[in-house]
Design brief:
The chain is mainly α. The protein is about 65% helix and about 5% strand. The strands form 2 sheets. It has a 3-stranded antiparallel sheet. Strands 1-2 form a two-stranded parallel sheet. Strand 3 and strand 4 (about 155-160) form a beta hairpin. The model is unreliable at about 1-35 (pLDDT under 50).
């Protein structure tokens, strides 16, 4: 990150505490029944601050973040208090945060600034995870029953009240989506481990899984693996954390361990196509072609539109001499993605090998 960009970000972060003196009203604004800061939130703030330092190069004062969370909670408190029903509580969060405070949604998951709390608060912009953690942090200060929910590569919050149960979808400005729409949009068939309301600790696991992927993108695989270990401790039932660990292990050349992780991910979610695809590649590399072809075929069945996955199936066929089947799959893959040079080269090699025979 350029020095000017870092300086600008620091300037924005300093604005978070504008007009607030250290220690001013830290507890006085809370009603008597409001909870103290929960352990899960303290852990989230520590992990987010570490990510801001390591991934963005920003020195972070956690007290600034806590003050801004407190400021937003103080804005929400009278609105929530005036609500005549639980639906109005959800509406108050949307109005104050997404309309008046102008927090906006950015779908990018590769930008750490979209999920690290420091930059989400500073820029008033976040992806599904960043805005979900903002909602949950404020709900923790106000004692409200918002919970996080995870679906493949996406999350949102759900209000679990006594009279209503309402999903809040940030990709549509805080609109309420029914569970059925998530099942349809994310192809969640019965039995897949998604769409349930998570504990706060499990949501920290989702955050650490995502943070680990940020370290992995920087080539810091060992640090990523440590974060994945912590994420698995908090949320052992999250398929993605095992998958992500498999990717890091694969990049480090620890292939047997990567195979174990991909299989754990598939034990939790047999329809995770990416895990089946990567597992098939590793099995083929180990000369275990029948197993590789079985995994690759399942991956293609799950995502028939994915040209790269079909190309990996073709490569597995060709690797064990089944050239006709390999050519068939390469041709199908090239038809899906005609500009993919890797697939074209694979098809040419397969034809050349078949011709030489």
């Amino acid at each position: 990150m350029k020095r000017a960009t870092v300086a600008a970000m620091l300037a924005v972060l300093m604005l978070l505490c504008a007009g607030v003196r250290p220690g001013e009203g830290a507890r006085a604004v809370l009603s008597p029944d409001s909870p103290e800061e929960s352990p899960w939130l303290s852990e989230l703030l520590r992990d987010s601050a570490r990510g801001s330092r390591d991934l963005l190069g920003l020195p972070v004062d956690p007290s600034l973040v806590k003050r801004e969370i407190q400021r937003l909670a103080d804005r929400l408190r009278p609105e929530v208090s005036r609500a005549s029903d639980e639906g109005q509580v959800v509406d108050a969060f949307r109005r104050v945060l997404l309309v008046e405070e102008r927090f906006v949604y950015d779908k990018s998951s590769s930008d750490p600034g979209n999920y690290l709390l420091e930059t989400v608060l500073a820029r008033k912009k976040g992806n599904c995870l960043g805005l979900s953690m903002l909602y949950l942090s404020l709900a923790d200060r106000l004692g409200l029953p918002f919970r996080g929910v995870y679906v493949p590569s996406h999350c949102f919050v759900r209000y679990e009240g006594e009279t209503i149960r309402r999903n809040v979808e940030f990709a549509e400005g805080g609109a309420s989506w029914e569970d059925e729409r998530y099942r349809r949009e994310f192809r969640i068939r019965p039995g897949r481990p998604y769409l349930r309301s998570l504990t706060h600790s499990e949501m920290v696991g989702v955050f650490l899984k995502t943070l680990g992927a940020g370290y992995s993108r920087k080539g810091r695989e060992e640090e990523a693996l440590r974060l994945y270990d912590e994420a698995r401790r908090l949320f052992p039932g999250l398929p993605d954390v095992h998958y992500n660990a498999g990717v890091s292990l694969q990049r480090l050349g620890r292939l047997d361990e990567a195979i174990v992780m991909y299989k754990r991910a598939l034990d939790l979610d047999p329809e995770m196509a990416a895990a089946r695809d990567n597992l098939g590649i590793l099995l083929a590399g180990a000369g275990r072609y029948e197993e590789a072809i079985a995994e690759a075929r399942l991956a293609v069945e799950l995502e028939p539109w994915n040209a790269a996955t079909r190309g990996n199936l073709a490569a597995a066929y060709c690797g064990c001499g089944r050239m006709d089947e390999g050519i068939r799959e390469y041709r199908a893959a090239v038809k899906i993605d005609p500009e993919n040079r890797r697939l074209q080269s694979g098809l040419e090699r397969a034809y050349n090998t078949q011709g030489s025979r």
